[in-house]
Amino acid sequence: MNVIVSNKYQNMLATLDIDIIKSINGEFEVEELVNIFTNFYFNKMIIDITAIKGYQNIKNIQKLSVNFDMNKIILLLDDSAMVNSGSYLSGLVSMGIYNFTRNINAVKFLIDNPNSYKDVAQYHNLNNSDNDDNGGNKASFDVFSGTGSGGLRIIGFKNVTAHAGATTLVYMLKKHLEVAYNVVALEVDNEDFKYLNDPALKSTTALDLSYHIANNPEAEVILLDLNSTGQINLCNEVIYLIEPGLIKLNKLIRSDRDAFEKLKDKKVVLNKSVLNARDVSDFENESKAHVFFNIPYLDDKKEHEQVLDDFLVALGFSRLNSSGSGKAKLFNIFK
């Protein structure tokens, strides 16, 4: 016998041809469901996700995994962008919640044919699309597209040499991008953003990163200062930063002689660089690494640096070509 916990999809769930021992309707805290169903025997519990208070915050869904046997839970998802974002679905899988669908017909299928990790592992890869929702229909469980035009693009920045400037670069790129895009900047497992005195910059943990990504449904661009613990798999692309000073490079090679071999086919950017075009060519020949872009030392107090617009256009942010962002005032007195 099965249990149904419904809210928005009460009528839809009522059409299921399954044995029901108990059905409740409304919005519930997870703790309330625990109290109701402690020592209550059931085969499967079908939960309309909108019946869980604060379900948009995946931490509330996490409480399910702590208090219930996830093999007995089937989640009927709503059609919101957040719940169907790649990061949200990846979070469900990480918690051991494998039985979820937006297709009412798939609910009955999952009762007798529960998913294993193998069936949902693809949702850990945010670049996957055209996935099957177990009901024979293709579902949009791909990269979270947001509501901004062009969808969401998540770009991670990772220091390869020590202190290669990822934090400050993310801050400056955000300022350049926001003249033409809805952009969010996050740093992972660090709090250096607070020293930049910009309340729009947010710090988070690797554990909560997926939630913060999903919690920005209007964003078109999310810039991540990954530090050492940020999940590369959450990014559409990763920029690997190298400060090409002699000491920094020698330290890198001494700590890892295969460092540049690991960067093969990666997007390598020289930052805080004093190299000219010929020097960059020599660097590429010696390191066997392709340099995507060469960013010189920049003044982080300036409102605009044309080289950063050039870098962003090279990354494909074409709106900057027509945004007029290159016409910054010389002395920044009148804003």
Characterization of this structure:
By secondary structure, the chain is an alpha/beta fold. It has helices at residues 10-14, 30-37, 58-67, 86-94, 104-112, 117-120, 166-177, 209-214, 246-255, 259-262, 277-287, 306-314; strands at 2-6, 20-25, 45-48, 73-76, 100-101, 131-132, 138-139, 153-159, 183-188, 202-204, 221-225, 237-242, 267-273, 291-296. A 7-stranded parallel sheet has the order 10-9-11-8-12-13-14. A 5-stranded parallel sheet has the order 2-1-3-4-5, with helices on one face. A two-stranded antiparallel ribbon has the order 6-7. The model is unreliable at 125-150 and 326-335 (pLDDT under 50).
What is the N-to-C succession of helices and strands? EHEHEHEHEHHEEEHEEHEEHHEHEH
Structural class: alpha/beta
Could you tell me the mean pLDDT?
Answer: 83
Shape field: elongated
Poorly predicted regions: 125-150, 326-335
Instruction: Give the helix tally.
Output: 12
Strand content: 15-25%
Instruction: Note the main sheet.
Output: 7 strands, parallel
Helix content: 25-40%
**Strand order, biggest sheet?**
10-9-11-8-12-13-14
How many β-strands, per DSSP?
14
Report the span from N to C terminus: 67 Å
The whole-angstrom Rg is 24 Å
Write a brief caption for the model:
The chain is of the alpha/beta class and 335 residues long. It has helices at residues 10-14, 30-37, 58-67, 86-94, 104-112, 117-120, 166-177, 209-214, 246-255, 259-262, 277-287, 306-314; strands spanning 2-6, 20-25, 45-48, 73-76, 100-101, 131-132, 138-139, 153-159, 183-188, 202-204, 221-225, 237-242, 267-273, 291-296. The protein is built from 12 helices and 14 strands.
